[in-house]
């Protein structure tokens, strides 16, 4: 579930200290950067605050309004980069794109939301973090990269409709010979009739059945080939 950007004001020390971390689930504070302004969407920079980067989240807390702050999980940050091009933004900053499940009809609706006094942060898809000291950008970027690596995108498990697992005994060709590495699994499992126009290469760079990690793609290709083969019989 994508949570996107959220309002956040939970602080330690009677609401004047650092952000409250989810220590029960192993969250640890990695970096603290004072003097950072935040820009949400196309809005104006907010008053400087303090940036907190943990092993799971990016948190910004205002130094002026103690009840004002924002948080986003690293799992919701789809891109982050150092921006120093004045044509992209007037000040050097960390630019981040945020995934959100909020449904918007068009870009004007998003712009209206950003310009309202009551900002709907769930619709914000871009964020800029502008440190007062631009020399800290590389350090901030490196921390972003390190923490992003700690939060890989979870792999969604889908229910398998077919069990496409072949034992060593099944990996044989029509003559009963073992299938050579690089030979198409479709060719060996579903023999092609002599009058068929199908041609399979035995020197495929990434043959079907020897996926480099995209198992769903391999399974889908096998299912399509099986269907076409059955239609040709």
TrEMBL record:
Gene Ontology terms: cellular component: cytosol; methylosome; pICln-Sm protein complex; plasma membrane; spliceosomal complex
Biological-process GO terms, alphabetical: cell volume homeostasis; chloride transport; mRNA cis splicing, via spliceosome; spliceosomal snRNP assembly
Localization of this protein: Cytoplasm; Nucleus
InterPro entries recorded: ICln, ICln/Lot5/Saf5, PH-like_dom_sf
Main location group: cytoplasm
UniProt keyword list: Cytoplasm, Nucleus
Family: Belongs to the pICln (TC 1.A.47) family.
Matching PANTHER family: CHLORIDE CONDUCTANCE REGULATORY PROTEIN ICLN, METHYLOSOME SUBUNIT PICLN
Annotated protein name in UniProt: Chloride conductance regulatory protein ICln
Originating organism: Kingdonia uniflora
